[in-house]
Structure formats: C-alpha cells, structure tokens
Amino acid sequence: MAGETHLVVGVASVLTLTQPKSVREAVLAVGVGAVGSLISDIDVGSSESRKGADKIIGMLGAVVILIFLLDHYFHAGVWERIISNRGVTEILIGALLFIGTCVFGMEQPHRSFMHSILALVILEIALTIMMPSANLYFAIGFISHLAIDLLNRKKVLLLYPLKAGWCFKLCHANGIVNRVLLYLGAFAAVGEMWVIFKSFIR
Fold first, then answer.
1. Separation between Cα atoms, residue 125 and residue 119, nearest integer Å
2. Would 108 disulfide with which of 5, 113, 148, 157, CB 3.0-4.6 Å?
3. From CA 70, how far away is CA 112, in angstroms rounded?
4. Angle, CA of 22, 23 and 25, to the nearest 5°
C-alpha cells in the first residue's frame, strides 16, 4: 500500500486501540504510531526506485517535526520525559540499535526483514531502552502496516530469515482498496484526533 495509506491507518489504529488520556500520551501516540506505520517501507529503495525510499524518509522526517510542534503547542513534555527518565547512555544505545536496524533493513529486499516479526522485536527492544512508554504505540503502527500489506499480491516475509512468505492476494498495492483504506483511515484518524485533542483544549 502507499505510504500515506499506511500513515493514516496506523495513526487511526493507535488512537482507536489506546484512547490516550492525556496530552502527552496523545502526542506520543500520534508521533510514535506514525513512525511505526511508516518505518517498514524504508526498504523500498532496495528493490524499486530510490525515489520511493526517499519519500518514506521524507514522511518520517515530517512526523518527527510534527511531534516537536505538537509537543511545543500542547506543552506535553514528551522530550523532557525521555531525557529525565533515561540516561544519556541508555538513549544513545537505544538510538544506535534502532538506527542500525533501519540501516540494515534499507539494504534488504522489499517486504523482507523490515516487514518481519524479527524487525519488530529488535526495534521494540531499542524503544524499551530509550522510552518504554512508546512501545505499544510503535507496535500497533508497525503491525497495522504488516496487516494491510498482507492484503496485496506480493508476499511478506513475516518469519524472516525464513524464505516462506504470506499474502492474501486480494488487491493491488495501488488499486481501489488502497484508496478506500486511505480515505477511511484519514477520516478515522482525523476524527479520533479531533475528539481527543478537543477534550484537552477545554
């Protein structure tokens, strides 16, 4: 599916399943859930055009900027909590493990390592070292990505490094199902964010 579809479906899934109860949790849920929903496709440049990977990396950069803006506007204190609750060494180790995993994944075939349970486990370990409270949001976003990719006609190597893959062959990645999921996901994500953030503004 397209990156935008993964993004809105991931954010909608995270907000629907976790129902954040504070500004900090809402900002964390949106930001980390968005990263989780997009991160798998940094491998598209290994098997398709580099332009695809650049698009995903650009979207990830935009998400990080959005987290900063939401954190600043709503005074959520997300970044302060990361720094105050974890030492510099822990944050550095976790960040290096996360980045190293992504760098390795970028060089693997599309829908292989970065679309696997193994990648999810390693990235969750990295987040546990840096900020355990982000784990659930990231996992939901990541799993939502795998779930809708399974609808396509290209196999997903969920049990990488095993070569066996799965797909339901129900639709094409850029066909009508992608558009339907994009519109439904966007509607659900915007609706959830409106309800949650409106309650905080009052």
1. 10
2. 113
3. 33
4. 65
Q: From the CB of residue 68, how many other CB atoms can be counted at a distance below 10 Å?
A: 14
Q: Which domain holds residue 49?
A: 3-201
Alpha carbons 151 and 52: distance in angstroms, whole number: 20
The tokens for 46 are 């290994």
* Residue range 7-42, pLDDT digits in tens: 899 999 999 999 888 777 888 888 889 889 989 888
Number of separate domains in the chain = 1
Closest C-alpha to 151, from 166, 141, 163? 166
- Runs of H (alpha helix) within the chain: 3-18, 23-38, 50-73, 78-85, 88-106, 117-130, 135-149, 176-201
Q: Which two tokens stand for residue 55?
A: 């698009």
Question: For residues 148 and 129, what is the distance between their CA atoms, to the nearest angstrom?
Answer: 29
Q: What is the pTM of this model?
A: 0.82
